[in-house]
């Protein structure tokens, strides 16, 4: 089974808690990213929740290129995410890409959350990782 699909299935089966195949706990959200052809791609992403919003980072495991889903989020104003809870909650969110210095500040928070993020800087060839704020819409 595909690695991301395994994480998605585990997320949905366990109220948003993922400890296999990696230790994510309840730090993930599933983002439904609209694609050009009108379909959606579901992407499990590490997140930092703050006051009714979630922040996700396009680290692509330190790749020098942005992951494909970045362009989908840049093309849309709203998206759907699934967040941890009993049961997992589906939320409609507004999508905003952070500008500097807010992006740099949130990047520091991601590095504090997991040392792996700091490692990604070594292989990204200077790429600044886009960070998106996904804010709950009522």
What's the helix-strand series?
Answer: HEEEHEEHHE
Q: What is the molecular shape?
A: globular
Distance between the termini: 36 Å
Strand order of the largest sheet: 1-2-3-6-5-4
The count of helical stretches stands at: 4
Give a structural overview.
It is a single chain. The chain is 25% helix and 32% strand. The chain contains 4 helices and 6 strands. It has helices at 3-13, 69-74, 102-113, 115-120; strands at 28-34, 40-50, 53-57, 78-83, 89-97, 131-136. A 6-stranded antiparallel beta barrel has the order 1-2-3-6-5-4. The longest helix is centred in the C-terminal third of the chain and has 12 residues, at 102-113.
Compile the SSE list and pairings:
Layout (H helix, E strand, L loop, with lengths): L2 H11 L14 E7 L5 E11 L2 E5 L11 H6 L3 E6 L5 E9 L4 H12 L1 H6 L10 E6 L2
């Amino acid at each position: 089974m595909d690695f991301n699909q395994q994480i998605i299935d585990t997320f949905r089966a366990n109220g948003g808690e993922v400890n296999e195949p990696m230790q994510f706990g309840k730090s993930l959200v599933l983002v439904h990213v609209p694609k050009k052809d009108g379909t959606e791609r579901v992407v499990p992403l590490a997140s930092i929740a703050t006051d009714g919003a979630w922040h996700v980072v396009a680290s692509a495991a330190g790749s020098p290129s942005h992951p494909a889903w970045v362009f989908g989020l840049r093309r849309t104003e709203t998206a759907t995410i699934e967040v941890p809870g009993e049961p997992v909650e589906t939320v409609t969110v507004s999508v905003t890409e952070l500008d500097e210095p807010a992006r740099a500040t949130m990047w520091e928070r991601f590095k504090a959350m997991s040392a792996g993020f700091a490692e990604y800087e070594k292989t990204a060839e200077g790429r600044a990782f886009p960070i998106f704020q996904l804010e709950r819409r009522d």
